[in-house]
Design brief:
305 residues, alpha+beta, three-stranded antiparallel β-sheet, 15 strands, 38% helix, Apea-like HEPN domain-containing protein
């Protein structure tokens, strides 16, 4: 048996589980690592840690901190992911991406796998919390997806792309249009994966993609993605204006917000829908959560199926 190990972090809780060929174990000094991270008052605000200042080595050996962050940074490793018979390194990394999504924290095996900021507490990013067997169910789901699609490696890459776009969109300092564009990228990746698994109708227009995916999985179609009318969907119009005309809500990017005074939080609903689509695409499309409304701030307890 040729077990492969992948050290990863940052996850602040003890996690020792196994499911078939896959297991996760906690490194011995987790408590010390968590204490050091949470007491980092210079870079931590609330439940987020931010990239440290860029340091430049000047002539003469002096190190000077620049007035801007490094953007890409690293955190200590806290756990080990093991697989007794992986197909390749991407197999383990795929497990790590899926695990990241379900614990609501960016996890990485690289030395500098974080961009701008990342939460240091789990379950902070999305509108669900795992129940049932929790992480064991996650490992089973990820392994089943990999086994089913192992001959189509681009599908696992698309899963990673969706998850990373969701993570990037959560930066607390993003402007609304930045979050919108990242979330729309997640939708585009969802569609690319969905159409590779199940062929969409011919001549499907760009503005019909989200509603097609919703129908595919029996999901409610949000008002902003409803393609039943003659005109383009609201979200497609916003996307076209942003990408092709450098405008958002009819103004230069960053100066106007969508939904002011209406009680509608478009990007929050987009995030919720992307999460539901991702879970359905991973193979748990029969869950009640997948068909649940995206127009509330309710936190859902989910059990993977």
């Amino acid at each position: 048996m040729n077990t492969h190990n992948l050290s990863f972090g940052y996850y602040p809780q003890t996690l020792d589980v196994s499911a078939g060929a896959v297991s996760i174990s906690t490194i011995p000094n987790l408590t010390d690592i968590v204490f050091a991270i949470e007491k980092d008052s210079e870079h931590v605000a609330g439940d987020w840690i931010y990239a440290p200042p860029q340091e430049v080595l000047q002539f003469g050996g002096n190190i000077v901190k620049m007035p801007y962050p490094t953007r890409i940074f690293g955190l200590p490793k806290t756990h080990i992911l093991s697989h007794s018979s992986p197909d390749n390194d991407d197999h383990l990394r795929f497990h790590l991406w899926v695990l990241s999504f379900f614990v609501g924290m960016r996890l990485t095996s690289t030395e500098a796998g974080f961009i701008d900021s990342t939460p240091i507490k789990p379950n902070k990013l999305f509108d669900f919390v795992l129940t049932g067997q929790g992480i064991v169910d996650v490992l089973v789901l990820a392994e089943a997806f990999w086994a089913k699609h192992r001959t189509k490696s681009e599908r696992a890459k698309l899963i990673a792309g969706i998850i990373h776009a969701l993570f990037l969109s959560q930066n607390p300092h993003h402007l609304q249009f930045e979050r919108f564009l990242l979330l729309y990228s997640a939708f585009d990746a969802c569609f690319a994966l969905a159409k590779s698994i199940q062929k969409p109708p011919e001549y499907l227009k760009h503005g019909q993609r989200i509603s097609w995916m919703c129908k595919l999985f029996g999901m409610q179609i949000p008002a902003w993605a409803d393609d039943s009318g003659v005109l383009s969907t609201e979200i497609a119009s916003l996307r076209n204006e942003s990408v092709h005309e450098a405008l958002f809500m009819g103004e230069p990017l960053g100066f106007v917000l969508h939904g002011v005074g209406t009680g509608v939080n478009l990007t929050l609903e987009m995030e919720a829908l992307a999460c539901r689509l991702l879970i359905a695409l991973l193979g748990s499309d029969k869950m009640d959560y997948v068909a649940s409304p995206v127009t509330t701030r309710q936190q859902y307890a989910i059990r993977l199926m």
